Amino acid sequence: MNEELTLLSPPHLYPEGYPRHFTIKTITAELRLETIGAENLDQFIVDEIFPKCVIPTDSQTCDYKSLLLIDFHWICRALHIVSWGATHFVNAIACTGGENNFGCKDSDEMGRVFGDHRVSLSNIGFRQPPANCEKILEIKAADTFIDWKWDLSIRFPRVGDMLHARKDPTFRAIAVKKAKGEGYIDPWDDLIVQFAYAITHCNKKAVEDRRELYTGLAAMNDLDFDGLLTAYNKTFGGYGIEMSGTVPCPKCGAEARFYAPVEERFLRPSLREKRLRREELIKAKKSKQPLTDSDVNTNRLADAGEESEAVAV
Ligand SMILES: [Zn+2]
C-alpha cells in the first residue's frame, strides 16, 4: 500500500539536491506501538518514522529536519491516509446553515454542532506556494517599522526549528510561565518564538542568539509587530494544508467546517478509524475493486482557501 508523494513546496525553497519525490510506506505495527510511549511525538516522527516510511526516490538520503513545516504537515497527512485511510473523527463542526450562515437551529450559539462526526482528510484543502514565491522575505525597517531599527531577513520555518524551540530551556521556561500553572504549553505556539526562528538575519548579520532576538521582538511596540506580521503573511502566510475541511451538517445538510490540525492524533489514530479502514480494504480486496480515496497528492476542493486568512506559520 505504498504511494508516491511530491513535496508541496517548489524546489528553490530547498538546497540544491534536496529530494522532492518520496515513497510513502505504511506505518508498521512496531512503529505504531512505539508512538504510544514517545514523549516527544514530533521528534519521534522525524527520527524514527520518516526514515522508515518516507523514502526519497530521487536522492540517497534526506535530512528530514530541514523539511519546511508545510511539507512536514503534508507528509503527516499522507502517512495517515496511506496507513489508516482518510477517515477521521471530530467531535464538533461549524455549520453554515441558518440565518447569516451562522449555524442552523440545531447548533449552539457559536454555530457548532457537537457529536461524533465522521470526516475525510481528503476534504482538507491546501495552498501550494507558487513556483516563483520568494525564498527569503527582506523587510526594510525604514519602510515597515516606527521604532524598530533593524532590517530583517525571514525564511519559511522548518521542522528542525520547531523541534529545537521545544527543547530550548529558555523557551520552555517562557511557555511554563505563560501557562500560569495550567499545565504544558507548547513553546512553538508562541508567535514570537516562531519569529525568533524564522528570522535568519538582522541588518544582514546572521542571527546567532535566538533568545536575544526573542527578547528584542517581545519588546517591540505592538504596531511594529503588526507590521512584521502583515509583511510575513503577505509573503508566506496561508500556505500548506488548511487543517480544516468541509462536511455536510448532519442536522440541516448545509456545509459545515471541521477542524483537523496536524498534531498528535494524526499519527495516533483511533481504533475505530483503523477498524473502518481494515473493513474497507478487505471488502475491496474481495471484490477486486481498488479504493479510490487515498490519493495523497490531491484534495477534492478545487482551489481551497484562495484568500484564506493567514496565521503566522
Ligand atoms: Zn446545520
List the helices and strands and how they pair.
Elements (H helix, E strand, L loop, with lengths): L2 E4 L14 E4 L4 H9 L3 H13 E3 L12 H16 L2 E9 L16 E9 L3 E4 L8 E4 L1 H4 L7 E4 L3 H9 L1 H11 L11 H8 E4 L2 E2 L3 H9 L3 H14 L4 E9 L6 E5 L11 H17 L26
Antiparallel strand pairs: 1-2, 2-3, 4-5, 4-12, 6-11, 7-8, 8-9, 9-10, 11-12
Bound molecules: zinc ion (ZN).
The H/E string reads EEHHEHEEEEHEHHHEEHHEEH
Low-confidence stretches: 299-313
Number of helices: 10
Number of domains: 2
Specify the biggest β-sheet: 5 strands, antiparallel
Mean pLDDT level: 86
Rg, alpha carbons: 21 Å
**Strand share of the residues?**
15-25%
Give the N-terminus to C-terminus distance in angstroms: 32 Å
Ligand types: zinc ion
| Shape field | globular
Class per helix and strand makeup: alpha+beta
Write out the strand line-up for the largest beta sheet, numbering strands in chain order. Answer: 5-4-12-11-6
Report on the architecture of this protein.
With 313 residues, the chain is an alpha+beta fold. The protein has two domains: 3-129 and 240-287, no CATH class; 136-235, no CATH class. The protein has helices at residues 29-37, 41-53, 69-84, 141-144, 159-167, 169-179, 191-198, 210-218, 222-235, 271-287; strands at 3-6, 21-24, 54-56, 87-95, 112-120, 124-127, 136-139, 152-155, 199-202, 205-206, 240-248, 255-259. The longest helix has 17 residues, at 271-287. Residues 299-313 have low confidence and may be disordered. Zinc ion is lined by residues 95, 97, 104, 106-107, 113, 249, 251-252, 254.
